[in-house]
Amino acid sequence: MKATRRPKAARPVARKGKGTALAEYERKRDFTRTPEPRGSTRKSGPALAYVIQKHEASRLHFDLRLEVDGVMKSWAVPRGPSTDPTVKRLAVQVEDHPIGYNTFEGTIPEGEYGGGTVMIWDVGTWAWAGDATPVADAIRAALVDGVLEFVLHGKRLKGRWTLVRTRKVGRAQQWLLIKQRDRYARAGSDITGRYLTSAVSRRTMLRIAEER
Ligand code: MN
User: Which of 44, 51, 87, 95 is the most buried (most CB within 10 A)?
Assistant: First the structure.
């Protein structure tokens, strides 16, 4: 999502991570000012990590992140996920985030990139839902092809989902996030309205903002 940025000359250039998968993540942030973690690539655990962060930036959105090759592939979903299979939610792909970002909950100072409060809205693991193997190659190919079918094992979101790339607008890749029909699908449900607290700390956005 577009966020207010200070003039480029005023921010120190982050050399760490330059030329790596997280170079863009590092370049966009001033780690002397933001409480967000520095970038480093690593494996999260035996299963692939999944997180959704609710982010009250210049515009409220939900950041969906899926672990791929030691980083969190990330999509900003303005209206958040829907468990109704007839609803397609716009998901704009943003820069890869470090695995360490999955435990970040707090407030990015105003004026910094993405300034605003971040809540861990859902957390868990995800799995490739296709038949092709090896899995790591199949996931990479799916991201290139623009159709990723996956299963979420979150506290709040479960079951089969699909991300489908629709178009490229400038440098931004637009995808649609769609719930597939299974026992976790709920017609007409408003899951983001139903869960208003953190999946890990139970805090509301207001409390997270107050406890900076
Ligand atoms: Mn965000």
Answer: 51
